Amino acid sequence: MNSILVLLYHGVTDQSAGKLNNLRNYNKKHLNKNTFEKQIESINKSCEVISIDKLVHYWNTNYEIKKPTVVITFDDGFRNNYSIAK
To answer: What is the reported pTM?
Structure first.
């Protein structure tokens, strides 16, 4: 039986150091855009990426997961979640 992995990102930046869309990169939790893209490419090659809604559906229906499955989430509403990590 496979399982579902939920990945939690804080933010993604296309700037290499310190600032993010005029906001500080708090605690350096924002991932560099190139690193994020490489991670997503790797995940897409070996896993099914699903939405939170589909995760809930799978849970409620005891859906049999046939291959490794991933949900990608962000914990804050930073603009970069939409503008960079689309």
So the answer is: 0.74
